[in-house]
Every structure is written in structure tokens, then in C-alpha cells.
Amino acid sequence: MIPTPDLSHLTADDYDCVYEPAEDTFLLLDALEADEQELKQLRPRITLEIGSGSGCVSAFIAKILGPSVLYLCTDINPHACRCTLSTGVQNKVALDPINVTFAAPLSLRLKRSVDVILFNPPYVPTIPDEASGAQDARGIAGAWAGGVDGMNVTDVFLERVEDLMSDRGRFYLVAIAENDVPGIQERMLRLHGLQSDIILSRRAGREHLFVLRFVRDLSRVCS
Ligand SMILES: C[S@@+](CC[C@H](N)C(=O)[O-])C[C@H]1O[C@@H](n2cnc3c(N)ncnc32)[C@H](O)[C@@H]1O
């Protein structure tokens, strides 16, 4: 069993402005742990977490994969980037946080070269203005405000993710039932040639959480 990263250096003040790991975070950790052997066999060179928050998820995958991998972590919230950096130090893994939206300034350099992509997005349905306001404010509301169907922020990244994935790359996404998981899967296959499986799901209070894993649909590449 891989231990949950040590977050004892983070305080209540940090969690006033940065997402505190919760059931969604832990579901993603459980999904990565279940894929531990496959992830190691992939021998990744680059991982990228979008919205790293406290840094808990990236520190966890860094424990699985070891020091030879580059762990890029982005977040729109500058305080989250500071927390991610300190979580790396606390857990003796080298995390590289970057304070940008999605992977925007890196996308050309990273084209088809990221082996593992992780995103636990702001998935809560809100009015669209709330999501766009939260993106602009770059604070704690950006951790959850997702706009229509909770998909306004996630949808922007879903348009870009295939371009970042290496040939053998995989993408792990957290979603809730209100996001229309079958609809996400159908669209990603039809529009981007990414085949997906629900690899874990769990009820947590009112939320029905899912972790989706996307890979290239090899039947399309070969045909
Ligand atoms: C639900 S929290 C997840 C935090 C952490 N990954 C975890 O699982 O505990 C979503 C994170 O995404 C960040 N975020 C929201 N919109 C973003 C964007 N456009 N680009 C990068 N990060 C974003 C938020 O600031 C927040 O840290």
C-alpha cells in the first residue's frame, strides 16, 4: 500500500485558499494505486497534473514512479502552486508547479509527449458566470465552480488533452454523475479518438464520483 502523502505542513490558512484533499482526491489516488504496475511498465518520462492544488496527487504518483520522471503540475491559483512545491519538499519528491491555466504556454513544447495526465477538475454545476468569475479570480472557488453541467472548465481541457498525450499516454479524469460521464466518453472517442473506461467509482455524500482513464483508440490508429 502506498502511503497518502504527508500534508502536515499545510495549515487551515492554506486551506482557506487552496483545495483541501477530499473524497475526489482520494478516489484518484486509489485509481492510481490500482494501476501501479501498469504505470511503472509504461516507464513514463513526463507526467502533468492540471489543477494540482495541495500537490497531494502529484506527490503520490511521484512516490509510485520515482525520481527519473518530470512531474509538471499546473494551477491557476498561485497559492496552490506554492503548496504543491512545499508538498514536494515535505515528501522528498521533486514537483514542478507552474502558475498557468491548463498547460497553456507549454502546449507546443509538450505536444504528444506527456505520458500520464491527471485532472481532478472543478466539476460542480454552477451558473456559467460563477465558473468564469472563479477562473478569473484564481482563488478557492476555482477549485469547484464548473458552470453548466459542471463542465465549462473541463470541456476546455478535453479539447486539448489529446494533443498533449504521447502515443502510449494515458489521461485520468475525475467526474461526477451530473457531468454526464457516458456523454464525455462518447465525445472523446468520436472527436479525439480517445477510448475510455470508468476505472473506479464511489458515492461520497451527495456526489457520485468517477475516475475515467483515456488512452488512444489503437484500432483507429492501425486501420
Ligand atoms: C478539485 S480541485 C483538485 C485539487 C487537487 N488536484 C486534488 O485532487 O485535491 C481543482 C483544482 O484545479 C485548479 N484549476 C481550476 N481551473 C484551472 C485551470 N483552468 N487551469 C489549471 N488549474 C485549474 C483549482 O485551482 C484547483 O486547485
From TrEMBL:
<dbReference type="InterPro" id="IPR004557">
    <property type="entry name" value="PrmC-related"/>
</dbReference>
<feature type="domain" description="Methyltransferase small">
    <location>
        <begin position="35"/>
        <end position="124"/>
    </location>
</feature>
<dbReference type="GO" id="GO:0005634">
    <property type="term" value="C:nucleus"/>
</dbReference>
<dbReference type="GO" id="GO:0032259">
    <property type="term" value="P:methylation"/>
</dbReference>
<dbReference type="InterPro" id="IPR002052">
    <property type="entry name" value="DNA_methylase_N6_adenine_CS"/>
</dbReference>
<dbReference type="GO" id="GO:0008276">
    <property type="term" value="F:protein methyltransferase activity"/>
</dbReference>
<dbReference type="GO" id="GO:0035657">
    <property type="term" value="C:eRF1 methyltransferase complex"/>
</dbReference>
<comment type="similarity">
    <text>Belongs to the eukaryotic/archaeal PrmC-related family.</text>
</comment>
<dbReference type="GO" id="GO:0008757">
    <property type="term" value="F:S-adenosylmethionine-dependent methyltransferase activity"/>
</dbReference>
<protein>
    <recommendedName>
        <fullName>Methyltransferase small domain-containing protein</fullName>
    </recommendedName>
</protein>
<dbReference type="GO" id="GO:0003676">
    <property type="term" value="F:nucleic acid binding"/>
</dbReference>
<dbReference type="InterPro" id="IPR029063">
    <property type="entry name" value="SAM-dependent_MTases_sf"/>
</dbReference>
<keyword id="KW-0539">Nucleus</keyword>
<keyword id="KW-0949">S-adenosyl-L-methionine</keyword>
<keyword id="KW-0489">Methyltransferase</keyword>
<dbReference type="InterPro" id="IPR052190">
    <property type="entry name" value="Euk-Arch_PrmC-MTase"/>
</dbReference>
<keyword id="KW-0808">Transferase</keyword>
<dbReference type="Pfam" id="PF05175">
    <property type="entry name" value="MTS"/>
</dbReference>
<dbReference type="InterPro" id="IPR007848">
    <property type="entry name" value="Small_mtfrase_dom"/>
</dbReference>
